[in-house]
Specification:
heterodimer, A: mainly alpha, MetI-like fold, 0% strand, B: alpha/beta, Rossmann fold, 2 domains, 9 helices, globular
Chain lengths: 274, 257
């Protein structure tokens, strides 16, 4: 048993101990109150009310069933054609984006980036591309490339590039750089070191991210296709425009199935390589 | 001394204006010699080793003569040529863990290949066979095609030694080769280094933390303290006073691994 002194003696000896925990509690309560206050002010500004959501739910559901059901499978062959195109677009744009991103990441990573000008330039470019949403790219580039699959391809490749450059440069920073030092000491050249040490060490993680890029592009191709005019998204846009909701619902079902399948396929591949 | 493979003269390294890591170090390494460098952490041992193949740039005015060439003055291409002939073994092995043992050994040959061949890993049949032979020699015949991440510490270090040997080096630098190993693996590694110096005639400069090991294995011991050489002599000459001078403590006060 440890024998302690009396409480008053201990208080005199550790004057800040109790204060520390009181302060921490106070800080937590203040921050929580602040967040709730912000949320309620915001809700008032946009006229958000919780009650009507529940009151109007039955009405909304009836409308949904009336408009969308039963799904219309009459144009399923056309749908499959566009869906296939969407998957191809997603794979191609992800591949191009990923390859460009890997080289850019080599240029901007702390361990492999050797040219300061290139490092700053590419980092700026990638940050700029990443921070502009795909929808804005689609609308902006529409004037340059016009509607079609090519525009959808460019927009998705840009999205992949911007995001993956950041991810890959972090990945290269985190990989074990000891082997780079060892190969430098043997007299190997820069590109030999990249190919023989950095590339094999980062490959599994890079492939895993590339698969994520494909999945992500399949998901976003619906919206981008609607704006840029390619793949199944374009079809969905047309159905919406002409109020063919039964057909639209069929398209949505198949898009969801495609996404689920893609997710499973990439999970399986990931399991094998990691 | 025509026997000297490496001749270091007045080697200095200044990191920031007032932090001198090396304050004018001079010594030779001769053919067939195993030379140990001992000294406390932060004495400048690792800096000294990395200055020799210019992984760290030494100060102007330093002189490192290797094979009759002063390394300090070399340009990038000539420096690569010199590095081809200096093997290096590291405390943390510094292998590419996703590749197999034999691939890691062949990395030691990259300096001899054109950039493109090196990138593609198109090693000559001769080099591939040599790599296999070296792994056999170091007792890793069963592990040639194992991923290095699956090897034990001692095995990883032996792959590291094979990578240095396949360079056909004139000198091998070992930067704390046994600091991360258990006593048994340490003995195996030190025995191999001894064999390399005696049978292959390749001199080894070894940076060690364990005074006992240095005394048992070295032909010559160099004691470094605060960036200067404070002792140079044979293992027999290492007395209590010498240890005290290097470490600022008695041998009994230093925990021996």
């Amino acid at each position: 048993m440890i024998s302690y002194k009396s409480k008053s003696e201990l208080l005199a000896k550790h004057p800040f101990a109790l204060n520390f925990f009181k302060k921490r509690l106070l800080r937590f309560l203040l921050i929580t109150a602040g967040i709730l206050a912000l949320a309620s002010v915001g809700a008032r500004l946009v006229g958000f009310q919780i009650l009507p959501i529940f009151l109007k739910l039955p009405q909304a559901l009836t409308r949904f069933f009336k408009l969308y059901l039963p799904p219309d499978f009459s144009e399923v062959s056309k749908l499959f054609e566009q869906l296939w195109l969407t998957v191809l677009l997603a794979v191609c744009s992800a591949t191009v984006g990923v390859i460009l991103a890997y080289f850019s990441a080599l240029a901007i990573s702390k361990t492999t980036g050797k040219i300061p000008v290139l490092r700053i330039g590419i980092r700026f470019l990638a940050t700029l591309i990443r921070n502009i949403p795909s929808a804005i790219w689609a609308i902006t580039l529409l004037m340059a490339f016009w509607f079609g699959e090519f525009l959808a391809f460019i927009v998705m490749a840009l999205g992949t590039y911007g995001f993956m450059t950041r991810v890959f440069s972090d990945m290269i920073d985190e990989t074990n750089t000891n082997s780079i030092e060892a190969l430098e000491a043997t007299g190997a050249s820069y590109w030999q070191i990249i190919a023989q040490a950095v590339f094999p060490e980062t490959l599994p993680v890079a492939v895993s991210w590339a698969l994520y890029a494909v999945e992500s592009n399949i998901r976003s191709s619906t919206i981008i296709g609607m704006l840029a005019g390619g793949g199944v998204g374009y079809l969905i846009g047309i159905y919406k425009h002409f109020r063919k909701f039964e057909l639209l619902f069929t398209a949505v079902i198949f898009v969801v199935i495609t996404i689920l399948v893609a997710d499973q396929v990439s999970t399986q591949i990931r399991k094998r390589i990691l | 001394m025509s026997n000297a493979v490496l001749s270091i003269n007045n080697l200095q390294k200044t990191y920031a204006p007032n932090t001198k890591a090396l304050k004018g170090v001079s010594f030779d390494v001769n053919k067939g010699e195993l030379v140990s460098v001992i000294g406390p952490s932060g004495a400048g041992k690792s800096t000294l080793f990395r200055c020799i193949n210019r992984m760290i740039e030494p100060d102007q005015g330093s002189s490192i003569v290797f094979n009759g060439l002063d390394i300090v003055d070399l340009n990038r291409d000539n420096l690569k040529n010199v590095r081809k002939h200096i093997g290096m073994v590291f405390q943390h092995y510094n292998l590419v863990y996703r590749l197999t043992a034999i691939e890691n050994v062949l990395h030691g040959r990259l300096g001899y290949y054109s950039t493109l061949k090196g990138i593609m890993g198109l090693y000559s049949d001769e080099d591939v066979l040599k790599a296999g032979e070296l792994l056999d020699l170091l007792g890793l015949s069963e592990r040639k095609y194992f991923k290095c991440s699956n090897l034990s510490g001692g095995q990883k270090q032996r792959v590291g030694i094979a990578r240095a040997l396949i360079q056909d080096p004139t000198l091998i630098l070992c930067d704390e080769p046994i600091a991360s190993l258990d006593p048994q693996s340490s003995k195996v590694i030190m025995d191999y280094l001894k064999d390399i110096t005696k049978q292959m005639g390749i001199p080894c400069l070894v940076n060690l933390h364990q005074v006992e090991v240095a005394i048992n294995y070295s032909d010559r011991i160099i004691g470094v303290s605060a960036g200067s050489i404070v002792f140079e002599g044979t293992p027999g000459e290492v007395t209590e006073d010498v240890i005290k001078n290097i470490y600022g403590a008695e041998l009994n006060d230093i925990l021996q691994k």
